[in-house]
Design goal:
The protein is mainly alpha-helical. It contains three helices and no strands.
Length: 105
């Protein structure tokens, strides 16, 4: 019981210190002209790029695997490819809309 209380107190203290560090970081960045929203935008873009790279790696790994085992998905693979093409088209259109919105801002 005593160990749990001590552990809980330690975790709470650590969380408070980390949130204080975050506030100090934002404060310091704002003093040099970098706003929170700019930091958030950079982090979101980095995450998006990382996610895109992971998706491409996964896709190429899937293609290598299907080539290696000579896999022919038949009708199911054809349906998947059609749906994937539709998804990619929708994603491209959504990205274009987002880019146009960003240009307005």
């Amino acid at each position: 019981m005593k160990k749990q209380t001590l552990l809980g107190t330690a975790i709470l203290s650590l969380m408070l210190m980390l949130s204080g560090c975050q506030s100090a970081y934002y404060s310091a960045m704002e003093k040099v002209g970098v706003h929170k929203r700019d930091i958030l935008i950079d982090r979101v873009e980095e995450t998006k790029d990382s996610q895109q790279e992971s998706q491409e790696e996964f896709q190429s790994a899937l293609e290598r695997l299907t080539t290696l085992i000579n896999f022919d998905g038949g009708e199911l693979q054809d349906a998947y490819n059609q749906l994937n093409d539709d998804y990619e088209s929708s994603l491209a259109a959504a990205n274009e809309v987002s880019n146009n919105i960003n240009k307005v801002e």
